[in-house]
Amino acid sequence: MVETRRRSARIADAKIELLDHHTAPESADSDSNSSALSDIDESDFDSDVRPTKRQKIAGGQASRAVRKTRSTTVKTVTTRTKVSATTTTSTSTSITTTLAATPIAKPKATAASIQALVTQIFDCPFPQGNEPPCHPPHPHPLTYHNPLLLSSPTARKHRDALLTWFDSVSSSRQMPWRKPWIDTTPFVSSSSSATCPQDLKEAVAQRAYEVLLSETMLQQTRVSTVIAYYNKWLAALPTMQSLAAAQPEEVLSLWKGLGYYSRATRLHALAQLVCPPPEEGGYDGLLPQTVDKLVQLPGIGRYTAGAVASIVYGCAEPMVDGNVIRVLTRQLGIRGDVKSKEVLEVVWEAAKRLVEAVAWDGTDVTEDGREGKEPPVSDRPGTWGQGLMELGATVCLPGPAKPKCGQCPVKDTCRAYQEGVKIATQKGLVPEGKVTARKRVVDIEDSCTLCPLPEAEESDKQESDTGTKKRKQGEVSAFFDKFKTSGTRRKKDAAEDSDPAEPSSAAMEVITSHCCKYPYTKPKTKKLREEECLVVAIRRPSDGRYLIHKRPAKGLLAGMWELPSHTLPADLKWNDGSAAMKKDKVRMVLKDVLKEVGVSSWREKEAELGTVPWTFSHFKLAMHVWAVDLVKRDEVGSEGGEGNAKMKRWATIEEIEGENMGTGMKKCWELVKESRGR
């Protein structure tokens, strides 16, 4: 009873927090967040008069209308205001506000508003009785996103089904980093790793190194590509200690071709921090067990920390990558932008509660006995996390590939799948059964603030296409259904709870098309900035070597080798310039570059080879490539020495081929070789 009262109090506080967050302006000076009631002069009202329920509804309707970017009129709002200390007058104020066509900015997410979302979604009791399980994409309460995989009566059965499915399919996609779990119970439960057997400590340290390496390589890279690199890396650097002792050039060489080279440099830095003994601030070669400590290490974020903690140490920690985001947004039926902080935090919270439930599933401890206790250590958290990722990688596929919903072991708990079945039913492709959801009236205080309703009109049109007569008949049937005997209703409920037949191919096409709408990502409106640079391939006449530079140890393409390059001013458009201007610019760059390697006098022959476009995550780069041959003066000058060989040197074609270069610079180098007939 005490816990129930506490939960009710948390839910009430969450509703107040959400209402305040979504109806109040972000700041007093911001017009973009003003509500429909802001046109009233606040001096006309006493500060201690609270808004009526009708005012709240009006404000909420205005906020919803703003999100739809439509023009609307807010109806008359009746308020009570104090005229004197003894007299109260009821005043009717008509407010007519024409909302702008442009959407009003949504208030920034705060820790309090996110916690309120989490409380209202996950801490509310799961709907009981004969409430329809889905209502696409009409207004719905936040509790709609409480995962059926967590809270429904069949949740445990479906969680076990996913684990069983993963056990059956994991062998078909063999990966060298997938290995049986090492029982770390004595290791995790001990106060110090020094008290654990040395062989267990070494085995756990090696397993942690392998998991960290694989998870780092798998970021932004396909599994099929990573396998060969993973095996090559471990052959050269088999332990964390060997990685810590390696030279940066060797590390980058082993990573060559995987891209995103900062992953390799951070992995190297991490090993050098972890390997020293504790008295020197390290971890004696063993990755820490907790997420809080793991995320403090270079290159380890929230996902990688969760992967190490769950797969290696058996802790109930979530691991959320792109595949898991897709699976869980479909399971929860969230249509909000997955790049928004609110949606991501809700997904992470769902993942956290699910993995904790899975960890407890392996015990006989009841829910009452779990209060205030940490979930037990076992292989279940790691298996569950990998199972979700495998489901997203092979079954719950993104839009172009189309999800294979018929093969999904948890489709019956998937909101997106249920919504798709509902739409297919409206089209007459699925017999009406347990998904014949009725529209429900949603209290404005409980309505979902995560999901826009872009398809509401489309869904309304789909419903109208089924025919007015058929709809009216359904409404009449629903009315008389209230007066059926309890026995008749029990038979109907039992029929709705039975599993329907597998949808036809046409119905499945509708279902999967709907599932492809998840996850939703707001289209990018901001253009990438554009830059231009000059790349000069300088060849020395005596031995045919080329001058190459090494990039700084930090920043873009850190530690990579490249041909000398120079970023052009933003106001200089290379292709608009004359041939003379281009040659002058090349000679200016040439002078600065050669001075650094001791070349004081020269003649040159230059040729423009072309432009290589390359797109980074945050800007576009146009690389204008020139080839320059130095011609030695007879009377004076020098071809130059090696300079600082660590940062710049003359290299043969074969040596350049073996160096670590960014993919864009490699394309520039290929252009140079083609011009030389190589």
TrEMBL record:
Q: Which UniProt keywords apply?
A: 4Fe-4S, DNA damage, DNA repair, Glycosidase, Hydrolase, Iron, Iron-sulfur, Metal-binding
Pinpoint the HhH-GPD domain residues. 217-394
- Gene Ontology biological process terms from the UniProt entry: base-excision repair; base-excision repair, AP site formation; mismatch repair
Q: One GO CC annotation, please? A: nucleus
Write down the InterPro entries for this protein, in alphabetical order: DNA_glycosylase, Endonuclease-III-like_CS2, HhH-GPD_domain, HhH_base_excis_C, HhH_motif, MIG/MutY, MutY_C, NUDIX_hydrolase-like_dom_sf
Q: Which PROSITE patterns match?
A: ENDONUCLEASE_III_2
Cofactor(s) required, per the database record: [4Fe-4S] cluster
Task: Quote the EC number.
Answer: 3.2.2.31
Catalysis performed (reactions): Hydrolyzes free adenine bases from 7,8-dihydro-8-oxoguanine:adenine mismatched double-stranded DNA, leaving an apurinic site
Question: Where do the record's region annotations for Disordered lie?
Answer: 18-76, 487-506
- GO MF, any single term: 4 iron, 4 sulfur cluster binding
> Which SMART domains does this UniProt record tie to the protein?
ENDO3c (SM00478)
Hey, which family's this protein in?
Belongs to the Nth/MutY family.
Protein name per UniProt = Adenine DNA glycosylase
Q: Which organism was this protein described from?
A: Neurospora crassa (strain ATCC 24698 / 74-OR23-1A / CBS 708.71 / DSM 1257 / FGSC 987)
